[in-house]
Structures are given as C-alpha cells and as structure tokens.
Specification:
With 201 residues, the protein is mostly helical. The chain folds into two domains: 137 residues, Orthogonal Bundle (Arc Repressor Mutant, subunit A), CATH 1.10.10; 62 residues. Helices cover 66% and strands 7% of the residues. It is built from seven helices and two strands, in the order ααααββααα. It has a two-stranded antiparallel sheet with strand order 1-2. A hairpin with a 2-residue loop joins strand 1 and strand 2. Keywords: DNA-binding. GO terms for molecular function: DNA binding. This is DNA-binding MarR family transcriptional regulator. It comes from Bradyrhizobium algeriense.
Length: 201
C-alpha cells in the first residue's frame, strides 16, 4: 500500500523512508521559484516591461558578435515558442528597445541587438538587480554556484520531454479508468453474457 503512494520509482530519487527527500526538494524549489517569479515581475515593472520582454532584453544583451541572437536563438534560450517570442520582439522593436539587422551569413535570418534606448533601460534596471541577485544567491560558494548552474541546465533541457510524458501517461490512465468504470456499470446480465465462453466451450 505504501509503495502505491510513492511519487517516484527511480532508486536515485528515493531513500529508506520513501520519497521524503524528493518531496522536500520540490517544496523548497517551488518556494524559491515563487521568489524568482516575484523578483522577475519586480524587475520588469521597474522598467515598464512585461516579464517576458524583460527576459528577452537580457538574453539579447548577453549575445556576442561571434554568436548573434535571432528570434530562434532567443526562443531556444528562454524555452519559449518561436511565435510567442516573435510577437514580443516586434513590440520591443516598435518601442525602440531592440533593432533587427540582416544576418551577414544568411539573408533569410535577422539578428537582434539592443538600441541605445534599450541599453539605457537595462543600465537603470541593473542598479536594482545587483542587490537582489546578491541576496538571492549570495549564500552560495563559487563551487556551489557552478554546480547549481550545471544541474539546472540539465533539468531545464529535460523538462519538455517530461511534460510530454505526463500528457501521454495521463491520457492512458484516464482511458483505463473509463474502461473500468464502463465495465462496472454494465448490467449484471450483460456481464454474464460477456464472461460466457463462445460456442458453449
């Protein structure tokens, strides 16, 4: 009965008492995630942007001349759909915060860069980001920070496949539940007919 209540099955995620460590990790992660979301909303509103627009500006700021960012690269970096990112980028272009220029090696693509107005907006924002990020992550050693960065990158890259698995398993379980419910609701006479061997055998 206890095993049926476990929320994971891989030995690496369990201990002698079951899934308590995993549950504790997730509770802490959700709590920290809420703090990150609140900080992101604070940062974005401080400079008059939506949270997604704020992230897009930061992503483009961190691009280089050797690795310029286009729409697809921003979408991949932020784990967002290309269509959604395109709409947000168009708004930022209209507001004069970023500019599009032809990609030097591929005429079908564009590369994105901050305008001076966009740079000024991020300079203003950085004065708020620095103390908040220092407070959020300042208890980590440099080695802790490197390990956390690597682990989160691996977890994020696997998240989409896990969500697709969730959809598949959910559909399968619902189908099985519906099948059992349908069988339980059959009249007794029909159940007997379904259970009777064919040709009297």
């Amino acid at each position: 009965m206890i095993d049926a209540l476990l929320t994971a099955s891989k030995p690496e995620l369990l201990d002698k008492d079951g899934d308590g460590t995993l549950r504790g990790l997730l509770y802490d992660y959700f709590a920290f995630g809420r703090s990150l979301e609140a900080a992101r909303e604070t940062f974005a509103s401080f400079v008059g942007l939506s949270p997604t627009q704020y992230l897009i500006l930061i992503a483009i700021k961190n691009s280089t001349a050797e690795e310029p960012m286009g729409v697809n690269q921003v979408a991949e970096r932020l784990y967002l759909s290309g269509a959604f990112v395109t709409n947000e980028i168009n708004k930022l272009v209209s507001d004069g915060l970023i500019e599009k220029t032809p990609h030097p090696g591929d005429g079908r693509r564009v590369q994105l860069a901050l305008t001076q107005h966009g740079v000024s907006r991020l300079i203003r924002l950085a004065a708020l980001q620095r103390p908040v990020n220092d407070a959020l992550f300042g208890m980590l050693t440099r080695e802790d920070f490197k390990v956390l960065s690597q682990l989160l990158s691996r977890l994020a890259s696997n998240a989409d496949s896990a969500l697709k698995l969730a959809e598949h398993v959910q559909a399968t379980l619902k189908f099985q539940e519906n099948q059992r419910a349908s069988a339980a609701n059959l009249p007794e006479s029909r159940k007997k007919r379904r259970a009777r061997p064919r040709n009297g055998r």
